[in-house]
Write a structure and sequence with these properties.
This protein has 14 helices and 19 strands. The strands form 5 sheets. Strands 2-1-3-4-5-6 form a 6-stranded parallel beta sheet, sandwiched between helices. Helix 8 packs parallel to helix 9 and helix 12 packs parallel to helix 14. By secondary structure, it is of the alpha/beta class. Helix content is 34%, strand content 22%. Bound molecules: 5'-deoxyadenosine and iron/sulfur cluster (SF4). Iron/sulfur cluster binds next to helix 6.
Length: 439
């Protein structure tokens, strides 16, 4: 009889890729993907705890499965990801949701299959969280679902300890993969026909720092770009403190590297940046943008910004707004600060009220949206290259992204998924582009 799995993923692209790894493990054991939880034999939650709402969301959805589990005793529910890796989280989870069968962490993801086998062989519940980082598994065992893009981890963990951030506690210290293993994985993916590679790490700019710099991040990019066929190379996330001229040069020199950099600024006030332990000032950040634009004139920058960090005054917030106005971001992801237990910022005096946070995020979003709209409008009447990634059955349109990640829709008589096409943009009033396929 067929066996089905459902994976529910929260959080960032790193987690999306880790869910592909979990899927790989399940498929190797004969499970088939299903989006219908009621049909599934195993439901896996791949959680995130970077912000409070992501965590609450996961807790709510796990809780909602109690009834399903009651009616289907042999259903297996597994919870993994960042949330379980927090101090005492596994105990908390088991107490709150005794019907959960497997709890696993981020440091032992590759052992998920063994834990499942244990559970299937009759164990009541399997809780296996590793407090310390395990060794890196270089082999690619993921079941990829994002053709023509493929995610490739280049490093795990983070050493930065930004004072608001839980990541260094739940993902451990920085561990870089071997450059040879990354190159083999990327080459195999390009050989298979993938057209876009996105390199993943919490702070890709410090790639190789922990392996005596045998290969730095700019060197890794250059090596990947030795493949001369047409493909797109992306990477995320860059920390501004390590974003330097060598990397900028490599971006400028290699046409495969998208001229889009995600460079989270977080705040525009130097006082707040210092409290956040970000190790750069607002003007140093803007200088880096200037340098980037000097070498790569058509480069666009996206960012993350947070409001309501402890002690943030109206003046500090005004600095953030003014930085946003000056930086010319292509788009920005905006967040309300939420205290994460165990981080320095959670202990700080001067936590900001929800009311003030709400009011500030609304003002910030207004400024960001106005800028994003302006960038959108500048597309009208332009010819844009799209990497086609899917077909929308409802809209009867093909869709894909341009170099800057903007979604474009168009009609085509032929299946062009996985191909680079050019469209003439006729409408760009919303967040996405509409265009006509150019012959
Ligand atoms: N509260 C709100 N936002 C946070 N981020 C990280 N930690 C927190 C937190 N405690 C945001 C940062 C980061 C993005 C991935 O999530 O802006 O760049
Ligand atoms: Fe968190 Fe800072 Fe590391 Fe990013 S660089 S993961 S914000 S600690």
């Amino acid at each position: 009889m067929d066996k089905y799995y459902t994976i529910i993923t929260y959080g960032c692209q790193m987690n999306v890729h880790e869910s592909e790894k979990i899927a790989g493990i399940l498929r190797a054991r004969g499970y088939i993907e299903s989006n219908d939880e009621t049909k599934s034999d195993i439901i896996v939650f791949n959680t995130c705890c970077i912000r409070e709402n992501a965590e609450n969301h996961a807790y709510g959805n796990i809780g909602a499965l109690k009834k399903l589990k009651k009616n289907k005793k042999d259903l297996i529910i597994a919870v993994g990801g960042c949330m379980t890796q927090q101090a005492d989280a596994a105990d908390k989870l088991r107490k709150k949701f005794p019907f959960v069968d497997i709890v696993f962490g981020t440091h032992n993801l590759d052992r998920f299959g063994d834990l499942l086998d244990k559970k299937l062989s009759g164990k009541k519940a399997v809780v296996d969280i590793w407090p310390q980082e395990g060794s890196i598994v270089e082999e690619d065992y993921s079941y990829r679902t994002s053709y023509p893009n493929a995610w490739v981890n280049i490093m795990y963990g983070c050493n930065n300890f930004c004072s608001y951030c839980i990541v260094p506690y739940v993902r451990g210290r920085e561990r870089s993969r071997q450059p040879g293993a990354i190159l083999s994985e990327v080459n195999a993916l390009l050989d298979k026909g993938y057209k876009e590679i996105t390199l993943l790490g919490q702070n890709v700019n410090s790639y190789g720092y922990d392996t005596n710099g045998i290969c730095t991040f700019p060197q890794l990019l250059s090596k990947i770009c030795e493949r001369k066929e047409k493909f797109r190379l992306r990477f995320m996330t860059s920390n501004p403190k390590d974003f330097g001229e060598e990397l900028i040069r490599v971006i400028a020199e290699n046409p495969q590297i998208c001229n889009l950099v995600h460079l989270p600024v977080q705040a525009g006030s130097d006082r707040i940046l210092k409290l956040m332990n970000r190790k750069y000032t607002a003007s140093e950040y803007l200088q880096k943008l200037q340098l980037l634009r000097k070498y790569v004139p058509d480069c666009q920058v996206t960012t993350d910004i947070m409001v309501g960090f402890p002690t943030e005054t109206e003046e500090d917030f005004a600095d953030t707004l003014s930085l946003v106005k000056n930086a010319g971001f292509f788009t920005a992801f905006t967040f309300v600060y939420s205290p994460r237990i165990g981080t320095k910022a959670a202990q700080m005096e001067g936590q900001i009220s929800e009311e003030v946070k709400k009011e500030r995020i609304m003002r910030l979003v207004e400024v960001v949206n106005a800028q994003t709209r302006e960038k959108s409008l500048s597309y009208r009447g332009k010819s844009v290259e799209i990497l086609c990634e899917d077909y929308d059955e409802k809209k009867k349109l093909y869709l894909g992204r341009d170099e800057y990640g903007r979604m474009g829709y168009f009609q085509s008589e032929n299946d062009c998924i996985g191909q680079f096409v050019k469209i003439m943009v006729s409408d760009s009033s919303g967040v996405s582009l509409m265009g006509e396929l150019e012959k």
